[in-house]
Amino acid sequence: MALSKDDRARLIKSGKLARTALAAAHMGTRMTPHSGEDAAPSEVSLPGDITEYLRGALLVEDAGDGLVQPYRFSEKQLRYLDSVGRGRRARATSGICLALVTTGSEVSFDCHVTAALDPAHPLYSEVMEHLGSLGQAEDGLIDGIDAVVEGGQSHTVAVRDGRIAVRFDNPEHLPLEVRIYLPLIMSVAVGRLVSNGTAVPAPRRGYLLALGDSITQGFVVGCPSLSYPALLSAELGLDLVNQAVCGYVFDQKTLTGIKALRKEPPAAITVAYGTNDWGCEGSGKEIRRDASAYLDRLCKLFPNTPIYVLTPLWRADEADEATLAGIPNGKSLSWVRRAIERACRGHENVTVVDGASILPRSPLMFADGRLHPGSTGAGIVAEALAAAVRNGGGVGVGGRGPQADPVSAPVPGPEVATTADALCAVDAESLSRPGVPGTHCEFDRLVRTVWRLRQEDGCPWDREQTHESLVRYMVEEAYEAAEALRADDASHMAEELGDVLYQVVLNSQVAAEEGAFTIDDVCRAIDEKLVRRHPHVFGGVDAETPEDVARIWDNVKRRERETAGASAREPEVGLLDSVPRAMPALMQCQKISARAAKVGFDWDDVSGVWDKVHEERDEFEREPTGSQARALEFGDLLFSLVNVARMEGIDAEGALAQSNEKFRRRWSRMEDLAREKGCDLDALSTAELNELWDRAKQEESHS
Fold first, then answer.
1. What's the mean per-residue pLDDT of the chain?
2. What would the pLDDT profile of 569-595 be if each residue is shown by its tens digit?
3. Total domain count, the chain
4. Which domain holds residue 695?
């Protein structure tokens, strides 16, 4: 998809560029490695327009000097919000982020503050006073820019004009997702996004639409990635569109002009009534009327989207007498909670979440000491809403966001959100290549067939199988498939590989019924492992020789073991513990000796191994015939011979299999020769058998 300069300028102005250019960003971008595994990559300008990396923006305008100004509202919405005096807050970039997958260790971009903090605002002074000495630090305490890096890294920087740079750890230059959250209550224009590694836009996912007032917008949370909508969307594996406006919640006119959102509805919606009517200036009748009209309109716009309504967090009915006496209409926020609950009745897709039961009435939970949750309180709110969403079911596994790419925007489950982003970026690059494999409907049909076999009216044999009962069949089918591979018989190979696949799908179905995992988890896990262990293909690491690949593979596996051990808090895994004991003894032997050799427990050359073979043979011959000691020494002799194979680069298991096949073939020819003579092999003498053996060998060597 190619856009002319004039077309691009026109689309930026109309706010449609992020939608029209997305497919080109995903389908036409290649991730190429930089030179040198350990060397820092040079600075690379990211492909495409910066709008292709924006998430949560419905409108993007050209701000001049290579910058763009993103908005989370449509033009029609902004006009209305301007008319009611809320345009400044509506233009804040809350929830908007730059999302990319990069192999680098630094991301930078140009930033221009178009609406700064207002120190004269009463709430600003109130928060600064509450923070005490911390209030003397940078503005990041009230508002900032966050960079959240896949794997748990996060960085906050102060909002300022000029170049913003964020550095993070990525020594192996693996593809990592980085999300740069723009300020919550300030407004900025951004441009010239750059990384010191290759990058593509992060895949788009389904999205969470967050509605509400200043609490939802993230007022005074400080770190934009720690507002509860940002935390909740990350937990659910969704992008975020935050349309909260300080002071306005139940005003249905703010829902006018959301055509893009209606065209591709959100996966979930949250509506939070915070403290915008703390002064209770409106009458009880007006509050009930506005709440009912707003929710009616919202449900009409999004009839199939689950909506979660969060009632006020602050327990106003527990306030001191002076506070209660100051409420003009005498309606506490607890009364408001009950009014909202009544307004939600009759809407099948609406769930009420009681805000008063979420946060303790503690100033520590609120950045200003009484009204607006800080980062700790926001985290608790996000956890409560995530629990409500999961209890409601289905969110986080369906839906597409505004401007979503229909080809490469699957919605990952909550537990794998960040990793799935990297996988989707890798897959998007693969999809851009000619000849890439398409969908596999036959695989889905197989999964459904196996599922059907396990149903009550299915196959009695399949229904009674367990993981334990299927072990022998998995081993048998694997050996039969290996035999077909060695025979290089295409039709036999396809049949035997199908039998192995059936065992994989059947075991996955058994696990799914137990709630352990599904076939999708199996596919995703191996996909993740392949991408993770091939940074020389999908990242920025160079590998020119098989030795380079082996070294990279070992480094990644070591980090995986370290991470797994740290997260599980289990004793460190031994060097040989991962070699399966169920593996054939010959294969075990070669793997065990190879592991030991990697840490230096090895001979200098193969001649030393042959000396060991002779030594073990002598020890074997010294033991009494038929004794257990003689059997053990024979095992040591075999172990030494397998080390000869390892040092010669020979697969001992494969070599022995070939010898077995060669013996079978020659023996079969001996049987043919004996039949030609009109006799059986068991009737021949040893000399006659040796003669037939030599003849079979000669025929084979001449063929």
1. 78
2. 455 556 776 666 666 777 778 777 877
3. 4
4. 654-702
One domain for residues 603 and 534: no
Q: Which of 393, 424, 455 is the last residue of a domain?
A: 424
Mean pLDDT of 385-392: 84
Tens digits of residue pLDDT in 249-301? 788 899 988 888 988 899 999 998 765 444 445 567 777 888 889 999 999 99
Structure tokens that stand for 523 in this block:
């596919």
Q: State how far the Cα of 73 lies from the Cα of 79, in Å rounded to an integer.
A: 10
Residue 468 has pLDDT above 60, yes or no: yes
Question: Do 96 and 187 fall within a single domain?
Answer: yes
Do the beta carbons of residue 312 and residue 273 sit within 8 Å? yes
DSSP state of 320: -
Q: What average pLDDT score do residues 290-315 get?
A: 88
Query: Does 560 map to a domain?
Result: no
Are β-strands 350-353 and 268-272 bridged in parallel, bridged antiparallel, or unpaired?
unpaired
Helices 284-301 and 333-344: angle between axes, nearest 10 degrees: 40
**Spatial contact of 143 and 117, defined as CB atoms under 8 Å apart:** yes
d(CA 87, CA 81): 5
622: its two tokens: 């010294």
Instruction: Please check whether residues 591 and 535 belong to one and the same domain.
Output: no
Q: Is the pLDDT of residue 17 over 50?
A: no
End of a domain among 364, 389, 424?
424
514 lies in the same domain as 448: yes
> Of all helices (H) and strands (E), which one includes residue 177?
strand 176-181
Parallel, antiparallel, or unpaired: how do β-strands 59-64 and 54-55 relate?
A: unpaired
Q: What is the model's pLDDT at position 664?
A: 83
Q: At a CB cut-off of 8 Å and minimum separation 6, what does 325 contact?
A: none
702 band by pLDDT with thresholds 50, 70 and 90: confident
pLDDT at position 94 is 94
Sequence-distant (≥ 6) Cβ neighbours of residue 156 within 8 angstroms: 140, 144, 145, 146, 147, 222, 223
- My answer on whether 643 and 664 are in the same domain is no
pLDDT value for 278: 45
Give the CATH number, domain containing residue 533: 1.10.287.1080
Q: Is the pLDDT of residue 648 over 80?
A: yes
Q: Are residues 17 and 78 in the same domain?
A: yes
Structural domain includes residue 664: yes
* Cα(37)–Cα(35) distance, integer angstroms: 7
In a shared domain, residues 236 and 363: yes
Supply the DSSP string of 515-573, one letter for each residue: TS--HHHHHHHHHHHHHHT-HHHHSS----SHHHHHHHHHHHHHHHHHHHHHHHT-PPP
State how far the Cα of 480 lies from the Cα of 473, in Å rounded to an integer: 10
Q: What is the DSSP letter of 213?
A: S
pLDDT at residue 395 in the model: 39
